[in-house]
Amino acid sequence: HLKMKINISILTILVVLFLAQSSYAQPDPPQRPLAGTFRNTILINSASTTIVPRKSFEFHIRHRFGLIEPDRTVITNFLGMDGTSNIQFSFAFPLGNKTMIGVGRTRNDKTYNLNFKRVLLSQTEDNKIPFTVALYTNFDIKTNSFAKISSNAYFSDGVTPFKNKFNHRISYFTQLIFSKKIQNLISLQLS
């Protein structure tokens, strides 16, 4: 009986100490993600770790200039704008705070694309998480007619005659993107 009373007393003291400690303990403030690493979802020709803000969308026009020569055509071709080598129109939409989806069309090969980006880890203001990590994937399908192939074109084995197939229209890739905001004016990215 005495042993049982001692065990109950010790257990009661431990519970009271635990509750007293937890009532005085200050909870850690929530980690706030660092904002403004990049201003756009695209960095030059690559996806950045930035996501389209909620309740908005982005419309992009990517343009590759044509030939610019040091003669009168500079003016007549409007600095290469009239001789486009390629142009793409695309939209990007948020699916929450950490996910976005995009669709687009590219002039070359009349290519349509669908892309997806998800932020896996966000750099925090206190730098406890020192960088942002995002997963980006893109799927393209070419819709133009196949070019005529010579009858003496073969696959790499040199025996099988080449024939265009549906899988020749498809391309895809996935990137793991790392970024870090170092100062207000300096951010770095590795894709």
Write the layout of secondary structure elements.
Blueprint: H1 2-24, E1 42-43, E2 46-47, E3 58-64, H2 73-76, E4 86-94, E5 99-106, E6 111-121, E7 132-142, E8 170-183, E9 186-190
Antiparallel strand pairs: 1-2, 3-4, 4-5, 5-6, 6-7, 7-8, 8-9
Q: State the major sheet.
A: 7 strands, antiparallel
Mean pLDDT: 83
The CA-CA distance between the termini, in Å, is 69 Å
- Provide the gyration radius in Å: 29 Å
How much strand?
35-45%
Could you give the count of β-strands? 9
User: What oligomeric state do the depicted chains represent?
Assistant: single chain
Can you walk me through this structure?
The protein has 191 residues and is mainly beta. It contains 2 helices and 9 strands, in the order H-E-E-E-H-E-E-E-E-E-E. The chain has helices at residues 2-24, 73-76; strands at residues 42-43, 46-47, 58-64, 86-94, 99-106, 111-121, 132-142, 170-183, 186-190. The strands form 2 sheets. It has a 7-stranded antiparallel β-sheet with strand order 3-4-5-6-7-8-9, with no helix packed on it. A two-stranded antiparallel sheet has the order 1-2. The radius of gyration is 29 Å and the shape is elongated. The relative contact order is 0.15. The mean pLDDT is 83.
